[in-house]
Amino acid sequence: MMMPPLSRPPLGLLAIAAGASVANVYFAQPLLERLAHDFALDAAVAGALLAATQAGSVLALLGLLPLADRGDRRRLLRVQLLALVVALLWLAAARNTAWLLSGMLLAGLLGTALTQGLIAYAANLAAPEQRGRVVGMVQGGVFIGLLSARVVSGAVAAVAGWRAVYLLSALLMAALALLLWRRLPHVQVPAVAPAWRELLRSMVQMLLQDRALRERGPLALLLFAGLNVFWAAVPLPLSAPPLSWSTAGIGALGLAGIIGALLAARVGHWMDRGFAHRVSLGALLLMLVAWAPLLGLPQSLALLLLGVVVLDLGGQALHVSNQALLLRAPAEQHGRLVALYMLFYAVGSGVGAAAGTWMQARYGWPAVCALGAGIALLGLAWWATWRILRKAAR
């Protein structure tokens, strides 16, 4: 069935909702010290709060997101919106450690499910010739929400306490729920809804058989490993002499990456015009050359900012191109494909963060840059291998 072009106002609303949703997954990071103080937690248990949020994200990818392929996506998104509002209120009212951990788990679970569900839903609404632009715009909202979350939560908590962060977010999500309740267009529902077990079983088959997923999934793993090598390691040299940046200053560095998010819709336009492989190659090259100016840390802050912009621009462009290619599949597969793709993202993010901090602690910043450049080279090699295989199969 041909879909009418998706107009800018509902698309903008979907992008805002996706950005607000993902922010809930990352609000806790600048709040750990305050939470540890209020709940008398030691460092190990405080770290478990972030682990609970990430565990919720993984559960969303494996449990909730595949349900988008089972029935009415509009109704599912409405339910998840309301459930996220309740979860945020529950979290803001936490009075003991178990209560707090459960709230973090729910914030990660529902925030992730809603974010990725909105991307799949927007792609489902878009006409094929505008799908790249639509995915790019919604993903741009996600990226801005992710980058802004740490800065916003730190600023609000400094003025009104950590509970105000989640109360304000609950109010925002409730307002978005009211706006989206009537404005979410209807999408076609499967005539016969598959069982949840069948959906999970089919995800294994997709992983083995879907060519785009087998190519783009590992590329996503390398993409997010490279990004997190930088973002996990860079606070260490920035906070140490001679720079001695504050936590707020380090968090604000992430705002430089918003330039990449603002260009995401343009990447989508190029995808719609048939330049998928050129976009991927250009993005991978940007992620490689970004490490040259980053090597100037701590001597040059100008080079640091340039490197951040180039690295995040390349990463954002590749992420949008990956998703746009995956979502060319039939609409009834979108939820599962996004879930599988984001599992590669989760693995890459975790491995990259661990490797980046270890490399910085053991060998210093030049070794971190060498590791990041090496990962970018692996990504280029993986992309080139698939290009050669595709040409050989013709």
Automatic annotation (TrEMBL):
UniProt entry tagged with the keyword Manganese: no
Protein name: MFS transporter
TM regions (residue ranges): 43-64, 76-93, 99-122, 134-158, 164-181, 219-238, 244-263, 275-294, 300-318, 338-359, 365-384
InterPro entries per record: MFS (IPR011701), MFS_dom (IPR020846), MFS_trans_sf (IPR036259)
Gene3D superfamilies in the record: MFS general substrate transporter like domains
Keywords for this protein: Membrane, Transmembrane, Transmembrane helix
Protein origin, superkingdom: Bacteria
Coiled coil: none
SUPFAM superfamilies named among the record's database cross-references: MFS general substrate transporter
Pfam families linked: MFS_1
Sequence ranges assigned to domain Major facilitator superfamily (MFS) profile in this UniProt record: 1-391
Listed GO MF terms: transmembrane transporter activity
Record carries keyword Lipid metabolism: no
